[in-house]
């Protein structure tokens, strides 16, 4: 049984479990570091518990329901016990910071559910097996600081995190791993990818210069070859310049009033729109980042468009170079107004750059300049019409759009308080409105209603990119969901976002997102709202777990002291409701889609718990009321 196995572990490697575990307590599941489901041990966490010596065979063969095993930072040694292969439900295996040795055993590759594997800082030796390719769900692989040798196999699994630094590896970094930074590979004899190019990468086909075919030595280029390359490059550059100049002349002679926006790309705006590295990050704290522009970025697109749009509306509505508005009474400004507006950069996102444009009449709009739109104009218009027809008080309204070959603009209502992301993680200085329970639970409810509305449009309508920078706030902190329907307008991101944080585990193509995947992302958003921690924060703790797993790893009794944002804790009278909302967040972020509630259920639960907290604030109830509530819900 699980109990026998735990007792065997205790007597084999002892450590602090000798003090921690009260063996007279028959309820093994209440022992520190242990969590159970249906009376079977699913989580065993004994980090830094002074465990010592080899793990004998005969223990883990019984703990077959284990999902998380963390024995990091102990002094365990020897080979990994072969009966660990029986733990086929294992998802998280954290063994870093021990003295394990021998080969990385093949049985690990037979654990189909493994998501996180950390074997760093041990004495493992031998080669890294291509058997890791069997672990199709693996997201994190840490093997740094061991004695691993040989070359790195080409791993084709979609890893979020990977590190093999400080081993004795050689050869080149395989293609599939080249997007990781050099720090993942340093301290080896590796080359290629983020590291220095491998010798042999530069093959110059002349008699005296080039690779000698396998000796591994890089031959220096001869002086003559270098001169040849330089002169050749300069000539090619001059030739391109001449061609460009000729082309430009031809074009301007042809017509002074070109029809296409593409010809008036405003270099000034381009510069102002580009971000200084590190300052504006996708999903980061970009709100409030302002670069005053003499003319809006949108104006660059609008300049010619406005000049040519008048009277050029074609009968079918396509091919027009003008703003297309949604709704009946919405046409309160036109391209010329946008042209005269002053603009500032709000931030750069997955789909392009967002600007704030202040119109001369005083109204303010947000303009999103889309990049990487690969679909045809017809498809674009069809899809954007569908987005524009969405109408709900918890969505950021899309007012208008503009389409030309080189410029695609979306015009939204401007949300004065910026994004939830900026509010939670941005300026925490004095003068900021404290984010109390009422505000946070109200934001949760507004966002839930917006997503519920989107889902009510049909089984194929999902948001696909729920995160805190896409929840925007009005002056009165009402939440509005933004960026819906955009994933279908643009091509796949050129660089896949590695640590998405919000993305459900089953999602492989970010454009194919189900209702249940939105629910997962909303769960992460709720956790962010309650903990104040950003889910994209690199390593939430030393184990590199994501926000949902971190919250789950903290026992429920300790949620109040360990998990909640300190600012929120000042409002003690709503502790029970806070715990309920956290439980809802955990339910939403369940690993398996079928276990997650629907958005309408989510909205209902938030409404209920908010009602009880508001009621309580007005009519404080004695504790007994809670007890009876609990009893009835059990
Ligand atoms: N309608 C709006 N009103 C006010 N601010 C906005 C509006 N739309 C976007 N922003 C701001 O502009 C920033 C960039 O937005 P954008 O939607 O382009 O990127 P993102 O939300 O960070 O990422 P993604 O494109 O992946 O959704 C956001 O952080 C938000 O603060």
Descriptive account of the structure:
- By secondary structure, the chain is an alpha/beta fold.
- The chain has helices spanning 2-13, 17-20, 223-254, 267-273, 297-309, 335-340, 377-388, 420-425, 437-456, 515-531, 547-553, 559-562, 566-569, 575-588, 599-618, 623-633, and strands at 34-37, 40-45, 52-54, 68-70, 75-78, 92-94, 99-103, 116-118, 123-127, 140-142, 147-150, 161-163, 168-172, 189-191, 324-325, 342-348, 352-358, 364-370, 398-403, 408-413, 471-473, 479-481.
- The strands form four sheets. Strands 1-2-4-6-8-10-12 form a seven-stranded mixed beta sheet, with no helix packed on it. A seven-stranded parallel beta sheet has the order 3-5-7-9-11-13-14, with no helix packed on it. A six-stranded antiparallel beta sheet has the order 15-19-20-18-17-16.
- Strand 16 and strand 17 form a beta hairpin.
- It is flat.
- Residues 202-221, 252-320, 494-499 and 618-634 have low confidence and may be disordered.
- Bound molecules: adenosine-5'-triphosphate (ATP).
- Keywords: ATP-binding, Leucine-rich repeat, Membrane, Nucleotide-binding, Phosphoprotein, Receptor, Repeat, Signal, Transmembrane, Transmembrane helix.
- The chain crosses the membrane at residues 221-247.
- One of its GO terms (molecular function) is ATP binding.
- This is Protein kinase domain-containing protein.
- It holds the Pfam family LRRNT_2.
């Amino acid at each position: 049984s699980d109990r026998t196995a735990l007792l065997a572990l205790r007597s084999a490697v002892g450590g602090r479990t000798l003090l921690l575990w009260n063996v007279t307590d028959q309820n093994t599941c209440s022992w520190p570091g242990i969590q159970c489901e249906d009376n079977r041990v699913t989580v065993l966490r004994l980090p830094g518990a002074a465990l010592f010596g080899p793990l004998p065979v005969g223990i883990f063969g019984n703990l077959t329901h284990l999902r998380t095993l963390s024995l990091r930072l102990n002094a365990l040694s020897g080979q990994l016990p072969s009966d660990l292969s029986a733990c086929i439900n294992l998802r998280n295996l954290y063994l870093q910071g021990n003295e394990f040795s021998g080969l990385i055993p093949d049985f690990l590759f037979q654990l189909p559910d493994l998501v996180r594997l950390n074997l760093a800082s041990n004495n493992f030796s031998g080669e890294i097996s291509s058997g890791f390719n069997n672990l199709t769900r693996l997201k994190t692989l840490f093997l740094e600081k061991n004695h691993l040798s040989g070359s790195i196999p080409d791993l084709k699994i979609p890893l979020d995190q990977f590190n093999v630094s400080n081993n004795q590896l050689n050869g080149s970094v395989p293609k599939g791993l080249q997007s990781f930074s050099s720090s993942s590979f340093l301290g080896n004899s590796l080359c290629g990818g983020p590291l220095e190019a491998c010798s042999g990468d530069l093959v110059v086909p002349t008699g005296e210069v080039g690779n000698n075919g396998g000796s591994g030595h890089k031959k220096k280029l001869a002086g003559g070859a270098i001169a040849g390359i330089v002169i050749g490059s300069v000539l090619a550059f001059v030739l391109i310049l001449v061609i460009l100049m000729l082309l430009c002349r031809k074009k301007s002679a042809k017509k002074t009033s070109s029809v296409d926006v593409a010809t008036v790309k405003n270099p000034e705006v381009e510069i102002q729109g580009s971000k200084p590295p590190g300052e504006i990050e996708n999903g980061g704290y970009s709100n409030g980042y302002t670069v005053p522009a003499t003319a809006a970025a949108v104006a660059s697109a609008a300049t010619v468009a406005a000049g040519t749009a008048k009277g050029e509306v074609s009968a079918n509505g396509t091919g027009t170079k003008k703003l297309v508005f949604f709704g009946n009474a919405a046409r309160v400004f036109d391209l010329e107004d946008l042209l005269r507006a002053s603009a500032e950069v709000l931030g750069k996102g997955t789909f392009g750059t967002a600007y704030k444009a202040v119109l001369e009449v005083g109204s303010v709009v947000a303009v999103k300049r889309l990049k990487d739109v690969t679909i045809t104009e017809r498809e674009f218009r069809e899809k954007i019409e569908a987005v524009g027809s969405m109408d709900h008080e918890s969505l950021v309204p899309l007012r208008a759009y503009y389409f030309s070959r080189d410029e695609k603009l979306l015009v939204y209502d401007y949300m004065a308080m910026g994004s939830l992301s900026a509010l939670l993680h941005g300026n925490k200085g004095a003068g900021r409105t404290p984010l109390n329970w009422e505000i946070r639970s109200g934001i949760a409810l507004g966002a839930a209603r917006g997503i519920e509305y989107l889902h009510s449009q049909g089984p194929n309508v999902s948001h696909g990119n729920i995160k805190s920078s896409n929840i925007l706030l009005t002056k009165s902190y009402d939440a509005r969901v933004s960026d819906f329907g955009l994933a279908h307008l643009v091509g796949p991101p050129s660089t896949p976002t590695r640590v998405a944080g919000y993305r459900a585990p089953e999602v492989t193509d970010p454009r194919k997102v189900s209702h249940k995947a939105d629910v997962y992302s909303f769960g992460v958003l709720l956790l962010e709202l309650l903990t104040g921690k950003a889910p994209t924060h690199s390593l939430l703790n030393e184990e590199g777990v994501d926000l949902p797993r971190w919250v789950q790893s903290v026992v429920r009794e300790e949620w109040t002291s360990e998990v909640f944002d300190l600012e929120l804790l000042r409002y003690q009278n709503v502790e029970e409701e806070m715990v309920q909302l956290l439980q809802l967040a955990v339910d939403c972020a369940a690993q398996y889609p079928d276990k997650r509630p629907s958005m309408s259920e989510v909205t209902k639960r938030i409404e209920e718990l908010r009602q009880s907290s508001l009621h309580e604030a007005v009519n404080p109830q004695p504790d007994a009321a809670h007890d009876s509530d609990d009893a009835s819900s059990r």
